[in-house]
């Protein structure tokens, strides 16, 4: 009996198999997203007992707030910096490990481990290392004559959070880049080497084009990660400070919704954040993907 006859005999089986994933999507994504869109058009009291329809007033307030534009700028700069740093480092590490003959398994294991660390724990770890008073690495920087204090210096705080977020994501990118390197036919590289192509020439002409699908996928995933999944790091290291230097959109949603109890404004920010990330993803698929060959 083949697979098709099995499905024909049990017409509900495909739906039963898809039901758990569908339930998870509905409960944890579609329903909260729908609630956010609904609340964005209301002003709700902190206890959620009453609400008043205000149409686009929440959006109008946000779009007229200079601090919100600063959060947008911080989020975009943060996403670009994290994506470039984490993917660039992971690409180099995967390139080296793919050509390593001794200790490859141990090296891969050590490079993958950081991904298992929870974002909040990773943030606390980096804070302990770089705290200007008791941080081990911070003491080395200060001893070297660097005026290091991310608690007061916004630029230092921004790059500290970028470094922590990139470090957390390097393992994820490394796994995919290493798999991409291993999927490249060795015969192509050997033929190019016989023809006299050096390492740089082989990388530019053969490796990078064949790695384009993997790179495109990772760009999309890293942008989503930087916008949505770095809340724990920012909260543990800087809490959006100093002076809003590390205040991203996702962290501002949390502050306005859970600290200031501005439920309508927080929901409106969530909607705008979804639109921004959705627009960036659409641009990537509509324009960047057209330049990528999957053959």
Give me the side-by-side strand order of the main sheet.
Answer: 1-2
Number of discrete domains: 1
Count of alpha and pi helical runs: 14
Terminal Cα separation, in Å? 34 Å
What is the alpha-carbon Rg in Å? 23 Å
Architecture, CATH level 2?
A: Orthogonal Bundle
What is CATH's topology name? MetI-like fold
Kindly state the number of beta strands: 2
**Which stretches are poorly predicted, pLDDT < 50 over at least 5 residues?**
none
Structural class: mainly alpha
Instruction: Profile the largest sheet.
Output: 2 strands, antiparallel
Helix content bin: over 70%
**Order of secondary-structure elements:** HHEEHHHHHHHHHHHH
What average pLDDT do the residues reach? Answer: 87
CATH homologous superfamily assignment = MetI-like
The dominant shape is globular
Membrane topology: Multi-pass membrane protein
Transmembrane segments: 12-31, 71-97, 109-129, 157-179, 206-228, 267-288
Main location: membrane
Organism: Phyllobacterium endophyticum
Account of the protein in words:
The chain is an all-alpha fold and 295 residues long. The chain has a single domain, classed as MetI-like fold, CATH 1.10.3720.10. 73% of the residues lie in helices and 2% in strands. The protein contains 14 helices and two strands, in the order H-H-E-E-H-H-H-H-H-H-H-H-H-H-H-H. It has a two-stranded antiparallel sheet with strand order 1-2. A hairpin with a 6-residue loop joins strand 1 and strand 2. The longest helix has 33 residues. The two termini are 34 Å apart.
């Amino acid at each position: 009996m083949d697979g098709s006859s099995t499905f024909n005999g049990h017409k509900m089986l495909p739906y039963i198999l898809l039901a758990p994933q569908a339930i998870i999507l509905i409960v944890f994504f579609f329903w909260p997203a729908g609630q956010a869109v609904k609340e964005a058009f209301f002003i709700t009291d902190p206890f959620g007992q009453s609400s008043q329809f205000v149409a686009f007033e929440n959006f109008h307030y946000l779009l007229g707030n200079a601090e919100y534009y600063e959060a947008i700028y911080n989020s975009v700069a943060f996403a670009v910096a994290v994506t470039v740093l984490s993917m660039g480092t992971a690409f180099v590490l995967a390139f080296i490990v793919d050509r390593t003959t001794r200790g490859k398994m141990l090296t891969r294991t050590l490079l993958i481990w950081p991904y298992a660390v929870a974002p909040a724990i990773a943030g606390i770890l980096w804070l302990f290392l770089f705290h200007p008073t008791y941080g081990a690495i911070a003491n080395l920087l200060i001893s070297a004559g660097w005026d290091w204090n991310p608690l007061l210096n916004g630029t230092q705080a921004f790059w500290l959070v970028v470094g922590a977020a990139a470090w957390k994501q390097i393992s994820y990118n490394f796994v995919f880049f290493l798999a991409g390197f291993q999927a490249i036919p060795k015969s192509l590289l050997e033929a190019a080497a016989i023809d006299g192509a050096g390492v740089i020439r082989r990388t530019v002409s053969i490796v990078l084009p064949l790695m384009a699908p993997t790179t495109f996928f990772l760009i999309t995933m890293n942008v989503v990660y930087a916008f949505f999944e770095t809340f724990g790091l920012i909260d543990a290291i800087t809490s959006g400070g100093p002076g809003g230097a590390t205040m991203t959109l996702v962290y501002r949603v949390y502050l306005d919704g859970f600290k200031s109890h501005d439920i309508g404004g927080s929901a409106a920010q969530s909607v705008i954040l979804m639109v921004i990330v959705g627009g960036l993803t659409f641009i990537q698929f509509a324009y960047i993907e057209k330049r990528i060959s999957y053959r």
